[in-house]
Write a structure and sequence with these properties.
Radius of gyration: 20 Å
Order of helices and strands: HEEEEHEEHHEEEE
Number of domains: 2
Number of helices: 4
Strand order of the largest sheet: 4-3-2-1-6-5
């Protein structure tokens, strides 16, 4: 997709977010005592999230400010439009305060390994602690952001722009995209809170990928496809697809 000059503008906005986070850390100074409390000003960004790209042409941002305000906006087409504003609940504020007081500041960026219109996600926290965020804590923060985005931004439905040049994803990435979308719909969560743990080619014994119900009529024929293991929060799910990912089956993996 040809995005013209939109991407540089969006990244400049994100750079401003991160500059504010740095100023917040300098203003707060070193933590005092074993249980420091956040002291960020009311207009200082404490938690920032940005996603851009994908076949749908996403360009979305979320900021949580020092006074508990949440602002969700879109930067599509170079415009900065607020989609919604809200306030953290007491439980949400307590959770954020805990992360800020315990974790050190971080700024991480992830890009899907796709050949066309890869999705890039950036997450930054103005942490004042000394602990490095674990993978489990990062997953929890992504889930926290996804919940805020859904509640405050309302996940508005907008037309999906047609790319000028379409380049199909590799088979593995197409399978992952389809499986992630199916699991997000199943759980009612944002796709970006779901991560891929494993993916492998697999031959299924029937057209229902071995997960047909008693009332289903499944063609008894070898069906090539993929087996994936996806993580959503603390849950692990197995996803099965056929080769072109037009069929997706899900089953939760029991954990001991």
């Amino acid at each position: 997709m040809d995005r013209g000059n939109d991407q540089p503008k969006a990244w400049r906005r994100l750079a401003l977010f991160l500059a504010v986070l740095t100023l917040a850390l300098a203003a707060c100074g070193p933590a005092a005592g074993p249980d420091p409390q956040p002291t960020a000003g009311p207009d200082v960004t404490v938690l920032a999230w940005h996603r851009e790209g994908g076949l749908a042409g996403f360009c979305d941002e979320l900021a949580v400010l020092g006074d508990g305000r949440v602002v969700v906006s879109t930067c599509r087409g170079g415009a900065d439009t607020i989609l919604g504003e809200g306030t953290l609940t007491p439980d949400q504020q307590a959770q954020l305060d805990d992360w800020v007081s315990r974790l050190e500041a971080f700024d991480i960026q992830q890009t899907d390994p796709a050949t066309a219109d890869a999705m890039t996600v950036r997450l930054a926290l103005a942490g004042r602690g000394s602990d490095e965020a674990t993978e489990q804590e990062l997953q929890a923060i992504y889930g926290y952001v996804a919940s805020l985005y859904r509640d405050v931004g309302g996940l508005p439905q907008r037309p999906t722009p047609t790319p000028k040049v379409f380049q199909p994803l590799p088979a593995e990435e197409r399978a992952f995209a389809a499986a992630r979308a199916a699991l997000a719909a199943e759980l009612g969560i944002d796709e970006l809170s779901i991560t891929r743990q494993e993916i492998a080619l697999q031959e299924w014994t029937d057209s229902c990928l071995g997960l047909g119900g008693p009332a289903e009529s499944c063609l008894q024929a070898i069906t090539p496809g993929y087996r994936l293991v996806l993580q959503a929060g603390d849950e692990l799910w197995e996803a099965r697809t056929n080769l072109d990912a037009s069929v997706v089956r899900l089953v939760e993996i029991a954990q001991q």
